[in-house]
Amino acid sequence: MSTPQTPSATESGLPERIVREESAQLDFSAAMSYGDYLQLDAILGAQKPLSPDHNEMLFIVQHQTSELWMKLMLHELHAAIARIAADELGPAFKMLARVSRIMEQLVHAWDVLATMTPPEYSAIRPYLASSSGFQSYQYRCIEFALGNKNPAMLKPHAHRADLLAPVQAAFEAPSLYDESLRLLARRGLPIPASHLSRDWTQPYVADDAVEQAWLTVYRDPQHYWDLYQLGEELTDLEDAFRLWRFRHLSTVERIIGHKRGTGGTGGVSYLRRMLDVVLFPEIWRLRTDL
Fold this sequence. Notes:
There is one protein chain. By secondary structure, the protein is mainly alpha-helical. The chain contains 13 helices and no strands. It has helices spanning 16-22, 34-37, 40-44, 56-85, 89-113, 118-128, 137-145, 161-172, 176-186, 208-219, 225-256, 268-274, 281-289. The radius of gyration is 24 Å and the shape is globular. The mean pLDDT is 90.
């Protein structure tokens, strides 16, 4: 039985002189490698197309990578909300900026999926059955953390207690905007009591008094610099979220037209309605009144 040979530096594409000078480690039989650290066997083994069609791999990788980005987004959002609740705005700003940049990544990910044509998608669609991105529990946690609460969105996860738990927790917790308004109140701005202690499972309702509080901040940014910056971080985040939603709509319309979604929604019509949801309404309204 022959012994497997380790490729030489030349065979691996690196001149042997460079390998010697850099003292690069080449033997990982007893050490943790890059693939070990990143659990690449599990990640790269998770793409299991159900159809014989070449294009299904694109569809799977697009959605799996989006779920990974959403995992990081939730990690940052939860930490930012906790920092705002603790009056630690410096770290929160970095986390919120990162969330906005993650959303930009997700916007551009649709550019890749948009290379799939209607006939190519039609070839794999029967294999999706009733599965749909509408059922993503991480996306639902993101929506709830950003304040778009809807109890009906708990139902797709009711069959899995392990998935329902984080979605339920996000549904019942104060949103990013709720915690931001509580911070404004702690800083002495007149936020109505109705917006400081309410049923967090209810959708947020805009209030003129809240807009006036934000206007106080925006009219004197030097005095309220960190709160002013918080308002702009929230604006950046919602701006990026709107682009993500719009690019999703545009890609779906390009690929399936106005067919119903695999998860039973109206597809494009449902996504178009979602574009009308405003997460931080007073921060957008104040621009008219400044």
